[in-house]
Amino acid sequence: MNRSKKSVAIGKVVIMIILIEALERILSWLQKNAPSSASSLQHGLTFSEIENRVEVLPFFLPTEFYKLYQWHNGVFSGEKDFTFFCPAYSFNSLEESLIQYENLLEEAQKIAEELWMNPAEIWNKNWFPIFSYDRDYLFIVGEEEKRYQSPVMSYFRGNPGPNLWYPSITKMMLAIAECYETGVYYINDNNEVTINYVEEELVRQKYLYE
Questions:
Q1: How far is CA 22 from CA 37, 178, 199, in A?
Q2: Which residues contact residue 61 at a Cβ distance below 8 angstroms, ignoring those fewer than 6 apart?
Q3: What percentage of the chain exceeds 90 in pLDDT?
Q4: Which pLDDT does position 80 carry in this prediction?
Q5: What is the tens place of the pLDDT at every residue in 130-163?
Q6: To which H or E segment does residue 203 belong?
Q7: Confidence of residue 7 (pLDDT cuts 50, 70, 90)
Q8: Peptide bond preceding 88: is omega within 30 degrees of 0, i.e. cis?
Q9: C-alpha–C-alpha distance, residues 169 and 18, integer Å
Q10: How far apart (Å, rounded) are the C-alpha atoms in residues 76 and 96?
Q11: How far is CA 198 from CA 22, 35, 48, 81, 201, in A?
Q12: Confidence category of residue 11, pLDDT binned at 50, 70, 90
């Protein structure tokens, strides 16, 4: 391996370490301040289990995605307490993400036929949701070849189109960890996780352009 390729490989390993550390920082905060939310996380999947589930998809998902779901496989079905893992989104299990993906494609096809539109303008077949709440989704972008990272996009069904939310899953998790640790996300008098939206946006902008 030449020096350039070795440097790239080391950089990729460092990114994965940073991602796992950020996830553990989030979990540590939740275990101390919102234990019911932390306990709703499902055990992580093996690499092979993830591969077997996503082989039906017409694209490859990034290494970050695999690391995220090896860490924990979202939350137990029906658990809403853990919506606040990423206020105010629920961390989908991989099974739930696959169901949402198929449902969104079917819905896009139906709407497109009614409105004489391209269904990809409503929901692109390369968009894969991993966080959601009601009709709002955070998704990553599948590619024709395997990559290490993907941008995280925000999409509210009915709006004109998606917006860049974070440049990668790692940046998103670093931002969430910082928001918890600095009081941007906090527990209110009703024992609910609450958001200081102004401060949250400042943190998001920091990691968006860092």
A1: 17, 9, 19
A2: 54, 128, 140, 142, 150
A3: 64
A4: 53
A5: 999 888 999 999 999 989 999 999 998 667 679 9
A6: helix 197-209
A7: very low
A8: yes
A9: 11
A10: 10
A11: 22, 26, 41, 23, 5
A12: low
Any idea what DSSP says for residue 63?
Answer: H
Token code pair at residue 18: 């940073």
Tokens 């919506």 map to which residue? 83
0.85 exceeded by pTM: yes
pLDDT tens digits for range 16-62: 899 999 999 999 999 999 888 888 899 999 999 999 999 999 999 99
Tokens found for residue 137: 């989704």
Written as six digits, the tokens of 62 are: 């990034």
Find tokens 């974070």 and name the residue.
Answer: 166
Residue 23 CB partners (closer than 8 Å, separation 6+): 68, 71, 72, 173, 177
40 by Cβ neighbours in 10 Å (0-12 / 13-18 / 19+) ranks as buried
- pLDDT on residue 83: 55
CA-angle at 9, arms to 205 and 43, nearest 5°: 70
DSSP state for residue 60 in the 8-state scheme? B
Q: Rounded to whole angstroms, how far apart are CA atoms 114 and 180? A: 44
Task: Give Cβ neighbours of residue 4 (< 8 Å, ≥ 6 apart).
Answer: none
Is residue 168 within 8 Å of 199, Cβ to Cβ? no
